[in-house]
Amino acid sequence: MPRQLLFKQIHYDTKLLTGSETISFFNDSDLNEESVTSMTEDQAVKWLFQNPDFLLMFLPDFFENPNKVKSFFGLTEPFTQKNNKPGDIDLLLVDIENPDIAIAFECKRVKSVSLEDQTAKVNNTEKIKHGVLQVNKYQKLGFHQTYLMIILLDDGRNYRTPNTLFRSTNIDELKQLYDLPFKEPLHTAVGVIFIILNQPTGNDINLTGAIAFCLDKPAEILEQKKSLTSKIESLIMQNLTH
Predict the structure, then answer these.
(1) Residue-wise pLDDT tens for the chain (242 aa)?
(2) What pTM, to 2 d.p., does this model score?
(3) Dihedrals φ, ψ of 195, to 5°?
(4) CB 65 within 8 A of CB 77
(5) Minimal CA–CA distance to 12: which of 206, 152, 161?
(6) SS3 content of the chain, % helix, strand, coil (to 5)
(7) What is the maximum span of the chain, computed from C-alpha positions, in angstroms?
(8) What's the distance, Cα to Cα, between the start and end of the chain in Å?
(9) Are 152 and 110 in contact (CB under 8 A)?
């Protein structure tokens, strides 16, 4: 049976104030700046979780005190062991006043590039299968919650819709992307999140774009292991003293 996907979304556009009486936003652009799809997985995760507008939209769904949440990227020891799965932890969000509330995220990047004929070429979906294996290993570490986060980098500049707000990959073309995590042996306690970072024109993604996220499957809330909380407390102290 088809499921409903509900996305929260923000659109943004930036203009230079020139003294003109009229400023219009979300116009087409003759520029051809670097594609959002050129971001690496690490770059995309950091871009999102260092973006204050995205954090305002995202964090309240997961934490009671979003202003107290800190992001940590690419964590290894003492949380994981070198050369052993799951390798590093792509993203860890922690309420610094409640270190027993920590959420681990395995992140996978997928790319979509629009074409002139209104179809899109979607790449890297097979990496989601590897992400499922990785996040199942995360779950055994004993965090408060564990998620698989799939980030779609969507370059829609070649669509020719008059309204730039609608230049994103059609959901029908993304069916495989949205279905794939549930076709793999995903641990029942692991949640699934989809994020879309959309570049609708040739402007740089830092100036014009859209960000959307869907909490597709909430993760099970667990009592975090005390030994793990002690490691997180040390991590917080190390970062507060630097």
Answers:
(1) 678 899 999 999 998 877 767 888 898 888 999 999 999 999 999 999 999 999 999 999 999 999 999 999 999 888 887 666 667 899 999 999 999 999 999 999 999 998 766 566 787 778 899 899 999 998 889 999 999 999 999 999 988 788 898 888 887 788 888 998 999 899 999 999 999 999 999 999 999 999 999 999 999 999 999 999 999 999 999 887 65
(2) 0.93
(3) -125, 135
(4) no
(5) 206
(6) 30, 30, 40
(7) 61
(8) 51
(9) yes
Contacts of 218 (CB under 8 A, 6+ apart): 191
Give every CB contact of residue 185 below 8 A, 6+ residues apart in sequence: 132, 136
The amino acid present at 130, given as its one-letter code, is H
Distance CA 151, CA 158 (A): 20
8-state DSSP, 166:
G
Torsional class of 99: left (φ above 0), alpha (ψ -120 to 50), beta (otherwise): alpha
Please name every residue paired with 145 in a beta bridge, in sequence order, or none if there are none. Answer: 103
Q: 79 near 89, Cβ under 8 Å?
A: yes
Structure tokens at 22: 């009229």
Is residue 198 within 8 Å of residue 212, measured between CB atoms? yes
The domain segmentation of the chain, as residue ranges, is: 34-240
> How far apart (Å, rounded) are the C-alpha atoms in residues 61 and 41?
23
Q: Using an 8 Å Cβ cutoff, are 168 and 194 in contact? A: no
Q: Which residues pair with 155 in a beta bridge?
A: 113, 199
